[in-house]
Write a structure and sequence with these properties.
There is one protein chain. The protein has about 425 residues and is an alpha/beta fold. The chain folds into two domains: about 160 residues, 3-Layer(aba) Sandwich (Rossmann fold); about 220 residues, Dihydrodipicolinate Reductase, domain 2 (2-Layer Sandwich). About 40% of the residues lie in helices and about 15% in strands. The protein is built from 16 helices and 15 strands. The strands form two sheets. Strands 14-13-12-8-11-10-9-15 form an eight-stranded mixed β-sheet. Strands 1, 2, 3, 4, 5, 6 and 7 form a seven-stranded parallel β-sheet that branches. The longest helix has 19 residues. Nicotinamide-adenine-dinucleotide binds next to helix 3.
């Protein structure tokens, strides 16, 4: 074992000691809940502004600096901080790398990044190198090099990194986490998850030119948004903490929906209707794990249809399927689904029992509240988060690796071990 590997192992050992979202973590939260945490924000578009508002409602949070290249967005965020906290933050908006000038200041502890997704990894690495903890919007990275860069920079700097994967924290998904950990479904061996959500209107600006979301659909192929789907099932299956993803195969239908959308919105002879999008509409990825378990991931973010974001976990004693309900062998009526609500009281997660009311006032089914609360506590206590840098690299790597598999005719491709072997001991 070389020195770099040993260091990576030591660093990822913290993953095993990560906050496991239980009463112990909650007790710590209440002990020091008002110790100030100073957070800078990069990117205050739709998402960054929403997160900023929730974050400012958490105890002890201060926002002394904000960066956005769009002055209107920056001013809007500045006004929000001024209204809630009394003092305006200092703003940074002098071009795409002005965030680095912001990072040079030494009067804040952590940075929340909510810029366009292709910028996340570089900004996160720069944040860690500047000696600040980092919370990154999803996905964490776009390329394999970026995935490794995140893991290594985290290791080298000793700062904390959290992927702000809010979908892990929704009420029912945390209840299922509890059920899995209590062995209700027996030994688990198969999961399904999806991100099927029509975002076609977000691909174009009103004049028909592409937004950054449109550009990635034009230029890339595969599953371009894997973490919302993979996050919850990876937590249920102890990925990186007892098991790990080892390989995947991926396939993709042809790209048709975005062209059809452009014709409907801008006309058949318009420039947008002449654009070629490389990314197919539905991609399906099948992931194999070291413990011979399987995960199927569905991704379609442009077909005209209502959203369908579903999750399934199957074990030797039963199954949870967000579309159908729960079935537990020997407890549920034979061959019959039961409503999930029947198990709510018994298996409600501690987070939701104690802070569900506050969470329910925030977006994404309350996930935004808990993901930000965990991010703030990570920075306040300088400790590893629930969704750490190895999770971010592993889940985000499904994007470049699904592309690689599709380009090789749906061949199997290897998923690297970002934990450096630590997953075995967790
Ligand atoms: N977790 C979730 O549920 C969720 C929901 C929505 C979006 N997101 C993620 O959040 C991120 C932001 O999404 P959005 O909808 O707010 O996008 P957006 O385009 O509305 O906002 C991005 C903001 O970043 C700013 N920006 C761009 N380049 C910059 C730079 N170099 N320096 C500083 N600021 C810069 C833009 O001016 C804009 O204000 C995306 O990565 C997206 O994937 C996550």
């Amino acid at each position: 074992m070389n020195k770099a590997e040993i260091t990576r192992r030591e660093f990822c050992a913290s993953a095993g000691a990560a906050v496991m979202l239980g009463s112990h973590a909650l007790a710590e939260v209440s002990q020091e809940k008002t110790k100030p945490v100073r957070i800078g924000v990069i990117g205050v578009g739709g998402r960054g502004t929403g997160l900023l508002k929730v974050m400012l409602s958490l105890p002890g949070v201060e926002v002394p600096v904000i960066c956005d290249i769009n002055e209107a967005n920056l001013n809007r965020a500045t006004e929000i901080v001024k209204r809630i906290k009394g003092n305006p933050p200092e703003g940074f908006s002098k071009g795409p790398h002005d965030y680095r000038r912001m990072l040079q200041r030494d009067d804040f502890d952590a940075v929340l990044i909510a810029t366009p997704a292709p910028l996340h990894a570089e900004m996160a690495a720069d944040t860690l190198k500047a000696g600040k903890h980092c919370g990154s919007e999803v996905p964490g990275a776009y390329t394999m090099d970026e995935c490794w860069q995140l893991v290594k920079t985290k290791e080298q700097t000793g700062k904390r990194y959290m992927l702000l994967e809010n979908y892990c924290y929704a009420q029912q998904r945390m209840m299922v986490l509890n059920m899995v950990r209590k062995g209700v479904f027996g030994e688990t061996y198969y999961a399904e998850c999806s991100y099927i959500h029509d975002c076609s209107s977000l691909r174009f600006k009103p004049d028909g030119s592409l937004t950054w979301r449109g550009e990635v659909k034009r230029d890339l192929i595969g599953n371009l948004y894997p973490t919302h789907s993979l996050g919850p099932v990876s937590k249920w299956m102890n990925i990186n903490r007892g098991d790990r993803m080892t390989s995947l195969v991926s396939s993709m239908s042809k790209p048709a929906a975005l062209h059809a959308y452009a014709v409907k919105r801008f006309g058949k002879d318009s420039d947008p209707a002449r654009l070629k999008f490389r990314c197919g509409d539905m991609s399906v990825t099948l992931i194999k794990t070291a413990q011979d378990r399987l995960i199927t991931v569905y991704y379609d973010s442009d077909s005209p249809r209502p959203a369908s974001i579903f999750y399934l976990i199957q074990g030797t004693d039963g199954v949870y399927d967000s579309r159908s309900g729960v079935y537990i062998e020997g407890k549920s009526p034979a061959h019959r689904w039961e409503p999930v609500s029947k198990y709510q009281k018994e298996y409600e997660h501690e987070y939701w029992k104690t802070r569900g009311d506050a969470a329910n006032k925030t977006g994404h089914g309350g996930g935004d509240y808990f993901v930000l609360s965990d991010f703030v506590e990570m920075a306040r206590h300088d400790r590893e988060p629930f969704v750490d840098v190895c999770d971010s690299a592993t889940w985000s790597s499904v994007m470049p690796l699904s592309k690689k598999s599709i380009e090789k005719g749906s061949a199997s491709v290897e998923i690297p071990d970002f934990t450096g072997g630590k997953w075995k001991n967790a």
